[in-house]
Each structure stands twice: as C-alpha cells, then as structure tokens.
Design goal:
It comes from Gloeobacter morelensis MG652769. InterPro entries: DUF4351. This is DUF4351 domain-containing protein. The protein is an alpha/beta fold. It is about 50% helix and about 15% strand. It has 13 helices and 7 strands. Strands 1-2-3-4-7 form a 5-stranded mixed β-sheet, with helices on both faces. Helix 6 (about 155-165) runs antiparallel to helix 7.
C-alpha cells in the first residue's frame, strides 16, 4: 500500500479525528463523501473529502510535492468541482495538502493558484513541522505522529509504539500498528521499525497498563489484600525494568534497587519518561529528581 493511500484509509476510518486535527477544533460529527466529482469524473487515491457541519474538508495526502498536473492547479480544480456539486446548502470548503515527506531544499511549496485574475488559496500542512502531541491522542492519527516534528526521531517512534501498545482492542491495535509500520518507512530504516514496532511489545504494554489500572482500583477499595497488591506492583516493576534494559542497557545494582522501591504511581511516570531516555545518565537524573 502506498503512503498516500494509507493516510486516505486512516482518514476514512476516523474522519472526526482527521477533520478535528486539520481544522484545529473539536468536532463531534463528520462523514466521508464520495471522491468522484462531476464533469469528467476523477478519482484520486490520495484524496479524501470529509463533511462537517457547514464545512467540507478536502485533504490531499502527498509523499512527493511534484505532480502532474501541478498541485496548485489540482486544488483549484477540486475546489470548483466541490462548489458545483455541494453548493446547496452553501458550505465552506477548506482545502489541505498534507505533505508527508520534506522535499528538496530548492523546492518552492505554493499555497495558492494564480492565473490571470483568478487567485485560489489553500493550506499546506508540512508534517515534519507539526507538533506530534495532537497526533498521539487518537489511534487513527498515531501513524502520522512518527513523521512529526522532533529532536529525536527514534524517541518519537518509541512514543508512538507506547501509545499503540495502550490500545486494548486487539483488532484496532493491530490495524494501527500496520499503518504505523507503513508510514514509518518514510523516516526510519526497516531494522529500527522492526525493533520498535513489534507486536509482542504491544501486548506487553497493554498488560502493563492494565496492571497499573487494576492497582489503582484496588487502592481505592477498602479491605484489599496487601499481599496481592504488592504482587501486582511487583509485576509492574518487572515490566518497567525490562523496558529500561531494552532502552539503556544493563542497570547497576543501586539503580535497580531504586527502581524496585518506587510506588506504582512513580512506576507509571517512569514508564512514560523512559521513552525519551538517551542513556544511563537519563535514568540517574530522573531518579535523583525523585
């Protein structure tokens, strides 16, 4: 499956998530419109049309900026066709080109089409400049997050993996993981993708999150058995220790002792923080701050 096609399918699976992200506001309802437009029918695999109250969102996903016909002309063409087809009732048409890959430094990225007296403007989303935080919140957007702005691409991919691992529904988790592997290919080598986006790690993360939630629930219940609670806490410690070893290597005895002495709440925070660790010093600094 092509990268553009993958984005289109993700948008069709959760149109509310994509429309909310592109428009920058929370939407409750969005539907997917047909991609065939009037006149000479055209259908583009990288295009998705989403209808929200009062607005039609046209998203064009592009791996390469170069196109025939040129993208500015295509956006103007789509705009006219959409207005002809959906002019009653009157709707606003918001258009976005979502660029998945940064073009060469000499490329001029246009945000309007000009010819004679006609000027048509649209928006360009440069994914490599986008804040990854909003993309990490919804399963359908998680695969795009791996291509977002970051100082450490590998650490960002690990955050994506951790979020995918928190999805408990097996089908949704597997689907999101599959798309994440496809899009990650635009930035990462196959070896890194295979190392960080592994199904067994996804399952382990799900178990880890469940253990933490069950521990919190039992903490609120009166009359809980202290031994059983400690047993579950120890399971959480073991998972965090395994994740640390994978991330920064073998721990010193003193560091392991400190981690084993953490509460479940502290373990949860460490489990999130370790995704950004760059080496043993990161763990030592984190522990010293506690």
């Amino acid at each position: 499956m092509a990268y553009d096609d993958a984005c289109k399918e993700l948008a069709r699976q959760d149109p509310v998530a994509f429309a909310s992200w592109l428009l920058g506001r929370t939407l409750r309802q969005t539907t997917v419109l047909p991609t065939e437009l009037g006149l000479d029918p055209i259908r583009a695999d990288s295009v998705v049309f989403l209808e929200t109250p009062g607005t039609i969102v046209h998203a064009e996903f592009q791996t390469e900026y170069a196109s025939d016909p040129p993208l500015p002309l295509r956006m103007a063409d789509y705009y006219i066709r959409l207005m002809r087809l959906y002019r009653q009732p009157v709707r606003e048409v918001e258009q976005f080109i979502v660029l998945l890959k940064q073009p060469s430094v000499n490329t001029t990225i246009e945000q309007e089409y000009r010819t004679g007296r006609m000027v048509h403007r649209y928006r360009v989303v440069r994914l490599w400049e986008e804040d990854p935080a909003p993309l990490l919140q919804r399963p359908a957007l998680l695969p795009l997050a791996a291509l977002a702005r970051t100082d450490s691409a590998e650490a960002l991919l690990e955050r994506v993996a951790e979020r995918i691992g928190s999805i408990e529904e097996p089908g949704l988790r597997a689907n999101t993981l599959g798309y994440a592997k496809i899009l990650a290919g635009l930035r990462f080598s196959e070896a890194i993708i295979d190392a960080l986006l592994r199904e067994e790690l996804m399952r382990e993360s799900v178990i880890y999150q469940r253990i933490l939630r069950e521990g919190e629930q039992r903490g609120r219940e009166e009359g809980r058995e202290e031994g059983r609670e400690e047993g579950r806490a120890q399971e959480a410690r073991n998972i965090v220790l395994r994740q640390l070893v994978r991330r920064i290597g073998t721990l010193e005895a003193s560091e392991r002792e400190q981690v084993e002495g953490l509460s479940v709440d502290q373990l949860e925070r460490l489990g999130e923080a370790l995704l950004d660790f760059s080496g043993p010093e990161s763990l030592r600094q984190w522990l010293s701050e506690r």
